[in-house]
Amino acid sequence: VIGRDVIEKYLDSLAKPRGSLGRLERIAARLAEIQGTLAPITKPRRVVLFAADHGVVEAGVTAWPSSVTELMIATILAGRAASSVLANVSNTELRLVDVGTRGQELDADLHLYRRAIVRVGTANLALEPAMTVADFDKAWRVGKEEACAAIGQGCRLLAAGDMGIGNTTPSACIAMLLADLPCELAVGPGAGADAAVMARKRLVVSGSVARALPMLTHEPTAAIASVAGLEIVATAGFYAAAAQAGITIVLDGFISAAAALITERLVPGSTRRMIAGHVSSESGHAAILAKLGLEPVLDWRMRLGEGTGALIAMPLLDAAAALLADMATLEDLGVGRCD
Amino acid sequence: VIGRDVIEKYLDSLAKPRGSLGRLERIAARLAEIQGTLAPITKPRRVVLFAADHGVVEAGVTAWPSSVTELMIATILAGRAASSVLANVSNTELRLVDVGTRGQELDADLHLYRRAIVRVGTANLALEPAMTVADFDKAWRVGKEEACAAIGQGCRLLAAGDMGIGNTTPSACIAMLLADLPCELAVGPGAGADAAVMARKRLVVSGSVARALPMLTHEPTAAIASVAGLEIVATAGFYAAAAQAGITIVLDGFISAAAALITERLVPGSTRRMIAGHVSSESGHAAILAKLGLEPVLDWRMRLGEGTGALIAMPLLDAAAALLADMATLEDLGVGRCD
């Protein structure tokens, strides 16, 4: 294991003016720090998309119907969603795991698709707990299994993504519950919401968090389960297992950041293995990343989810790792530093 | 040829919330607009690094000696410079063309390296014109030959980079001369400059521009030649030929932007084929891009040159092009837009 001082010294020894690769050097340093080596690795890698439906959609918190979840899963598996395209272009394996949608089982390759239904959608968290602690444990376990399988198959870097109409609502609840975000910051428009939808969403989120909060200290899992989503919990379990195995994790957007908050709460220190792929235009995302102490690779006002914010960062991580591996030092050139 | 309205409509028809890929959609739109098609192409591609030395180094405008130019060329050709590493990781062909260094001819593959010395370094622009109009024409022609050769060999996207200790000084002159930048904004620290070096650099730049300015209207080439660098002029010729052939051009940093100003001045409209790979931390760069009407792909405070700011953008352009080529539309899914 190497310290930050060794990493900075090495970056400053390379054949370039000091600091002249800007943020690319910061990313290289982060990879080196996570992996404890001056030769970090970013491949092979996989993005696992966890999908589920949300009972809270019936409370009118989103512009899109739940049926879109199923249609988008089929599109992802057909290689024609944004995430499939970005996975392909960045040489990242993609896999979709259904932990609780209302859709039918699909006919797809088993290395691409797994159906592991914890329950068929969450309950409407506006009215009752979204899931039980037993559901939470099951979803967490599916996520953990996925991380362990990927690592066993050689992956050295992992990311997760989400598919589930309505999932910015439970994510906003988690942001309020675990990162103390005010409701106005935690609740954003998600995949699209007009003023009336936004007003309902704020009421639902603040009401549910008020019910969950008293449980947080003594029954944190129950408190989180009451406002979460199945794909969010599976992602949290996935991150926890990857972090425990020492694997580098690339976060996606707002839903992914909410999952990371759960991971860090239940397995403190997991954030040390994480890189934030991007910061989205969903208002609460930047605030969660600040809470986690993570600086995003890109700030491009993306807000699609589906792992796209992690996938777009992958070639930039490759570039950062390659600099550390392959660049000459000034000493190799026989030149002293002049700046 | 298709218009902006068609491009925007197509982006809004894809299976994602409207605008949810943020800047990635803007880049896709720019590629489509430049190439006049909804299926833009980003490969095969090449970055040509033009190298030269600068007489003005003897005026004490930089922290590094001219001998570093030659050492860095050898490092680039050995595949161990930042640009070689980023070219390799982004599947971009790299080639170095020496248009006027003081270094020896190197032994390297002819597809990697060309020696086409216009003159051995420029004259010291603090005291006399950096080059004659005949030198300017020769350097321009080398750049043009390189663009034509690359296009003939199948390249669909071209970038240029620079190697030449001292070249932010002529670039600052060009920024003042052609983009009306004030001296304080045009002159930055380059590869490293303390307060004393910066003060000398400002004096040299403002003095040289004052001499060049009266010629600008009637003898623009002579005015530009008097404050330019050989690699900058070769880059300008390279851009002009690429633009005339309708090829997509990716700009690098401050030196590249200065070259683009020359191209646009002598071949108006060339900027329509250009994408800015990044905006550097060199103070004048953002101002030149604003003048050219170009929005950078990345704002990462890089300032290395050598084509690195163009190369780091390449995989992001690939991602943008892939979205247009491969994503499903909402109509394919049988869903109406809800946002």
- Mean pLDDT of chain A comes to 97
Number of strand elements of chain A: 6
**Estimated share of beta-strand residues of chain A:** 5-15%
Low-confidence stretches of chain A: none
What is the radius of gyration of chain A?
A: 20 Å
How much helicity do the residues of chain A have? Answer: 40-55%
Biggest sheet character of chain A: 6 strands, parallel
| Shape, principal axes of CA atoms of chain A | globular
By DSSP (H or I, 4+ residues per run), the number of helices of chain A equals: 15
Oligomer: homodimer
Biggest sheet: strand arrangement of chain A: 3-2-1-4-5-6
Q: List the helices and strands of chain A in order.
A: HHEHHEEHEHHHHHEHEHHHH
- Kindly report how far apart the N and C termini of chain A lie: 29 Å
- Secondary-structure-based class of chain A equals alpha/beta
Describe the structure.
2 copies of one chain form a homodimer. By secondary structure, the first copy, chain A, is an alpha/beta fold. Chain A is built from 15 helices and 6 strands. Chain A has helices at residues 4-13, 22-35, 67-77, 82-89, 133-152, 168-179, 183-186, 195-212, 220-227, 230-244, 254-266, 283-292, 308-311, 314-326, 330-333, and strands at 45-52, 93-100, 113-115, 157-163, 248-251, 274-276. Chain A has a 6-stranded parallel sheet, sandwiched between helices. In chain A, helix 6 (168-179) packs across helix 8 (195-212), helix 10 (230-244) packs across helix 11 (254-266) and helix 11 (254-266) packs parallel to helix 12. The longest helix of chain A has 20 residues, at 133-152. The mean pLDDT of chain A is 97. Chains A and B meet through helix 2, helix 3, helix 4 and helix 14 of A and helix 2, helix 3, helix 4 and helix 14 of B.
